[in-house]
Backbone:
């Protein structure tokens, strides 16, 4: 096929030199992508090494490609080593029937667990109450000094852990949270672009130490995340655990109940559960807590916004005589706009995860062949000055002056592979930020 325009690519290394240069010159990857957008248009091609990537920077084309024609762009580009380890299991780096089944099951289970409604709201509020109590206990002369990113990290971690295995993190098991954070961090440190792109057989036979290191670091995270689920499965088999099949306590219970009825389906195996838990943990933890920390920093630097948010929230909660609830959302337009602006500026996922096209397709008039790699440039989209005027300014009012702008904001991605945790994350941002903002 004929690819959209882009910077001149060199053999084998492609556009990596230009990319490195512009990231350095523009002081960041998002401004570098934005520069390419200005030069080559909303749809451009970047060669990452020998592979061309079609980047889509505007909302309308993203909608046309990933939503309207979503079925042809639902497959992820899988790093060979991930595919090798997971054998097709999981949510983030999987494709085909197992991915589709797990996505359906996870969305349904989250809905049944009350995500976005009062049931999950209660869980989040319980977590916040307990966290505030801890802070009060630590106070000296009525003052507690807090590392905000640690506070957000453990709060979000606790909410996800309660949802997955029914257990929050407190002073008795904080070491478990710290261990998990460490393992995820260590695993992130191990990976290089070389490991992610090299075929497994080359890694295995020519770089065996590297292969082992990468595999072990991923396995360590998975095994730690899934240890309680595995224990519960053993206890269930030995009659030591009672499963409430109608009203599962948490995600693991819901999965085990489904597994009993689907013995022959590889999507419902312990291996599958292990990868789904690891994916929900890793995709849901850092993204949400980094958004909260980034939002906190924005608010501290914009006291006039804090003042307006406080006034609005006090009015809605009868002068703070009751906690804020998700039901109040329709009455808190300024707070909603502030959260949207926080997400626009935070740009947690600069680019959506890479997808590949199925069969011959057309994007913006360019005919693409089978298996072309595509991505939504979420960061560049959110700082496009034609859509968001003065994009560098933290200005929640922009979403009130022009309500349509909200549709152009897609921090959770778009289409068949968009974020599964969007409702949970939105609830957390609303309730946690109202308290700790
Ligand atoms: C503010 C918080 C969050 C942000 C900004 C965010 C953003 C994203 C983005 C951009 C994607 C990729 C979309 C694409 O490739 O098109 C994604 C995928 C995903 N997210 Fe989130 N996310 C957040 C929170 C969460 C939470 C709380 C969970 C789980 C509880 C979660 C689970 C997932 C999963 C499983 C996927 C992969 C979905 C699939 O491939 O089918 N995320 N997220």
Residues:
């Amino acid at each position: 096929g004929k690819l959209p325009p882009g910077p001149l690519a060199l053999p084998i290394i492609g556009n990596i030199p230009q990319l490195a240069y512009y990231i350095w010159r523009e002081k960041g990857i998002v401004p570098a992508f934005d520069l390419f957008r200005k030069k080559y248009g909303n749809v451009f091609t970047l060669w990452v090494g020998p592979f061309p990537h079609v980047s889509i920077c505007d909302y309308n084309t993203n909608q046309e490609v990933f939503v309207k024609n979503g079925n042809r762009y639902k497959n992820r580009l899988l790093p060979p080593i991930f595919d090798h380890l997971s054998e097709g299991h999981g949510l983030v780096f999987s494709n085909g029937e197992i991915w589709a089944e797990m996505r359906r099951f996870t969305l349904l289970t989250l809905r049944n667990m009350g995500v976005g409604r009062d049931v999950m709201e209660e869980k989040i509020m319980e977590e916040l109450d307990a966290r505030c109590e801890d802070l009060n206990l630590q106070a000296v002369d009525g003052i507690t000094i807090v590392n905000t990113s640690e506070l957000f990290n453990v709060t979000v971690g606790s909410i996800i852990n309660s949802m997955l295995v029914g257990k929050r993190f407190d002073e008795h098991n904080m070491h478990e949270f710290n261990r998990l954070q460490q393992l995820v961090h260590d695993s992130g440190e191990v990976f290089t672009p070389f490991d992610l792109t090299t075929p497994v057989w080359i890694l295995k036979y020519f770089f065996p130490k590297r292969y082992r290191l990468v595999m072990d670091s991923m396995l360590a995270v998975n095994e730690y995340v899934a240890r309680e689920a595995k224990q519960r499965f053993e206890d269930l088999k030995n009659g030591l655990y009672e499963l409430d099949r109608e009203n599962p306590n948490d995600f693991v219970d819901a999965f085990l109940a489904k597994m009993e009825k689907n013995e022959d389906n590889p999507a419902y195996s312990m291996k599958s559960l292990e990868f789904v838990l690891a994916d929900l943990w890793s995709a849901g933890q850092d993204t949400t807590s980094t958004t909260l920390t980034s939002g906190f920093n924005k608010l501290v630097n914009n006291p006039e916004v804090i003042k307006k948010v406080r006034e609005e929230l006090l009015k809605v909660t009868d002068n703070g005589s009751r906690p804020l609830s998700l039901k109040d959302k329709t009455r808190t337009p300024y707070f909603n706009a502030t959260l949207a602006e926080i997400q626009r500026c935070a740009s947690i996922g600069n680019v959506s995860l890479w997808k590949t096209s199925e069969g011959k397709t057309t994007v913006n008039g360019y005919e693409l062949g089978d298996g072309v790699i595509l991505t939504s440039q979420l960061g560049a989209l959110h700082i496009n000055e034609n859509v968001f005027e003065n994009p560098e300014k933290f200005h929640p009012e922009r979403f009130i002056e022009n309500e349509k702008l909200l549709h152009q904001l897609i921090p959770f991605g778009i289409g068949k592979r968009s974020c599964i945790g969007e409702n949970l994350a939105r609830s957390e941002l609303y309730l946690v930020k109202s308290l700790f903002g």
Residues 91-92, 103, 160, 279-280, 283-284, 287-288, 291, 348-349, 352-353, 411-413, 417-421, 424-425 surround protoporphyrin IX containing FE (CB under 6 Å).
